[in-house]
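Appendix B.2, paired examples.
Example (i):
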Amino acid sequence: MMKIFITGLFLVVMASLTDAKLAAQTVVPVKDGEKWYGGAVNDAHLMPFKDGYSLDMNGDTRGNQAAPLLVSSKGRFIWSEEPFKFTFDKNRLSISHSKSILVIDSAGKNLREAFSNASKRFFPSKNKLPDTLLLSRPQYNTWIELVYNQNQKDILSYARAIIDQGFPPGVIMIDDNWADYYGRFDFRSDRFSNAAAMVDTLHHLGFKVMLWMSPFVSPDTEVFRELLAKKFLLFDNEGEAGKTWEKAEKPALISWWNGFSAVLDFTNPDAKTWFRSRLDHMVNTYHLDGFKFDAGDADFYPSSSLSFKKASPNEHSRLWGEMGLYYPLNEYRAMWKMGGEPLVQRLRDKKHNWEDLQKLIPHLTTAGLLGYQFSCPDMIGGGEYGSFIGKDKLDEQLVVRSAQCSALMPMMQFSAAPWRVLSKENLSAIKKAVDIRAKYTPYILQLAKQSASTGEPIARSMEYEFPNQGLADVKGQFMLGSKYLVAPVLTSSLVKTIYLPKGSWRDDLGKKIKGPAILTTEVAPDRLPVFELLNRN
């Protein structure tokens, strides 16, 4: 039977773990005017949630960051240590399939207080920062330029072009297909004649160097046979009910975007030790500075698989996240329940279109509401390489507006080389966006340091910073800390509608404006509208 305990303003629901009991629902009436957010970052453009939305987070994190947390504009939050299903229908929030204690907290009064109460209790910030070069300078990823043809010559050419074109050096990320196969931890000799020398050259140019990693191991390889013998991989239960890990012999082969591979089992401490030893080998041998940890999505860990310790697909994903804690220079694209940690999170790959550009702000601000403060929007112009195939010419205006949108987010990351795809005029607009970021970098670093201590988001939704002013559905602008309202153009039109909350403001052109106000203005192609809050009265 489900047990309910009420202590003060906390409602705690104890759910039995039998299948019959898991079908039970907890129904939370939605208050008048109450807006809810949370769950999966990649669905944030659908937030605040409306009737008809439903998500079962068991094994489904929507290919990006997620957490077992819902927060409301009326100060309430819902948390469970395990994933659950939630549905909004007829002004009711129904929660089911919960495999752990369900906490419903009504102590807060607004979205900020709901987040703060949840953060302090369940994912307190660890007072640690990732490598601040990720925040202070633009990042450069080799993915769109090289895709699977990662090689020493072209990587060095890309890096030198960054400098020659007048962009500041920062972190450069070498992406997928640098090794002979997955699980081999050495650069492939046919494409890298001297990888250590390449990294040394990149350092000399002013870059730090990250390398793409995944938890996968190619089958029918020497490393695979070694890991299979040591039982460092997930195993298939072969459809036999009651089969144990100790008796398992057949490795699970996972279907992912690069085919079928075995996957490391990080519930096994010896497997974690082995994997970290290989990462350290790469650092020591090739002088690398850190790693881009890709994949690790919950849906790549079948619930039927057998592991050293029993774990849910979501827990396997979280354990992949723990590997980044050893390396301050890190990046993840999939994450579960690791809020408050010094881990860099990148939004899921976006297509090269305006619709996906418009998702960046709600996705990034929602990541902050789940405790993922050190977040990067996707690559400027989009990182979903399939949308670039067959395109002889990119939408230059889209690339510029994408750079402007990223410029005052916690991080900005280039991949498609702006000097290759843009006219001289549009390249100048991109450089102006980089210069704008440099102007605000001290404030961004200040916010990052505060966030490492308090957990408070760096980039904030309008409802978070200005509660109960009717801004919960505003998705085309955000607050950088409590001081600057950033309103990038996110459509092909030059016209932008901007919502100024109550207070006195000064825009980037020097004009003072009294809020609340709704501004409809034409924005020049090289302008990023920024409004400084002078006072809240």
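Example (ii):
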Amino acid sequence: MTNRWSIRPHTEEDLRIRDELAAELGLSSTLCLLLVQRGITSAREVRKFFKPNLNDLHDPFLMPDMFKAVKRLNKALGNKEKILIYGDYDVDGTTAVSLVYKFLRPYSSTIDFYIPDRYDEGYGVSYKSIDYAVENGISLIITLDCGIKAIDKVAYANERGIDFIICDHHMPDDELPAAVAVLDAKRTDSQYPYEHLSGCGVGFKFMQAFAQSNDIPFTHLENLLELTAVSIASDIVPITGENRILAYYGLRQLNNNPSFGLRGIINVCGLAGKEITISDIVFKIGPRINASGRMMNGREAVELLLSKDMNEANERSESIDQYNDDRRELDKKITDEANAIIEEIQDIETQKGIVVYNPDWHKGVIGIVASRLTEKYYRPSVVLTKSSELITGSARSIVGFDIYKAIEGCRDLLESFGGHTYAAGLSLREENLEAFTNRFMKLAAEDIVPEQMTPQIDIDAVIDLKHITPRFVNELKKMNPLGPDNEKPVFCSLRVQDYGTSRCVGKELEHLKLEIIDGKGGGPLHAIAFGMSTHANYVKAMNPFDLCYTIEENTYNGNTTIQLMVKDIRPSES
């Protein structure tokens, strides 16, 4: 599939601000342009961006219902009521439960946590959990990363004398559950200054408010920031504003003094002794926490995150590492089966969406499979399987297509649904499957233009190789933590050439290891192009080519070198 390259536009005003920042702060003009592109246009904003400050966190009481939530929690603790901390089985939910439970545990001997079973109960609040609460004399349930749509279940709990405090970050409907408090910055009546918190982030704000109301120093909350960082990275929320502050300090704790549980995961990931980044959480730490809920029960992940000694943490980490290996095998098997179904669709090239169903697929990995299909075919994908009496599924989208809105457009055919712009979950009865598939495909056909079905690489800046110096790479590090809405900068260099040493590498010689120069005195620089060995003959014939890449540091045997991570190669225009 050919990629489209799109160079981010900039105005004369952008260039003026770039030059002013470069002169005032002594930074390279390229870095200053990257900052301007991200809406950072004054020296004061640059300093705050480079050095986030915990004092800039918003007042948690600006969130709707926060006073009610704190009042009810204080009452429950004062009366020694039994409290249940309830969260989803993914990384965001399990980190959120761990955070709130860990912080409240010293103030209550009657607090417990509950993670629903993905297969027996499904996503969100379950009737089974409410019955459990009734049987165990629990009078307050605090939900985290779920609950915003649990209207019927909250009503069911209220009839049985159980109150709810809901902490969620998903899109609410017009009607909210009849909980004591509903904490969600996406509420239509919310005046909270930042709406992109993770579910764990909302839990953190609740604990921040609780601490303020009880004169508990903020320093008592700081050891929870590692959990917010893991949730922010894993749930793919924007790393801007308040999330940037939480992620910055959470990463600092992960690197300097992680809790036993996260240290155990760091060890099994092979990250011990290395600087942990958002990318490490996304690709190594997060998947292992997730694997517990996918393959067995998310409760094990919480028990790991709450480990009280290193031996316990190491043992539990080994267990979820095995779950992750099992998950990989299953995910590959189901992806292969899904690809086989798609290859049988004769007019797939003309279709703008994908819906695949197999009642035997493992529910725990269909979200990953949906992501892989979207990445391969660059179409919104819905992957469905059978769970109990219902068909359940996960959906992933492409840039510019709001999959939550599309699924909401099928709500009369669904039993439940929820999610975000680019990822959603749903369940439906089998007799509605054909109607759902037809309507979803129709909505995709109406909304998606052909250009959207070709992956686009957004290039931040075109630069010469001579500008890629150790000093420039150190400047780029100041942009960390990187992630959604502050992505790793993508650069392009034009008319570069092989230095004469490029070669194919890899088990099947599928990768291209490059050493490149340009005609302006730049290079030689090392680059690696994974899966791009088809360009080898063209490159080695000394033809000029354009290179699209990100910049990394590569450390080997104590030596650090600059390496370009190639995203795409194309022949230079004459």
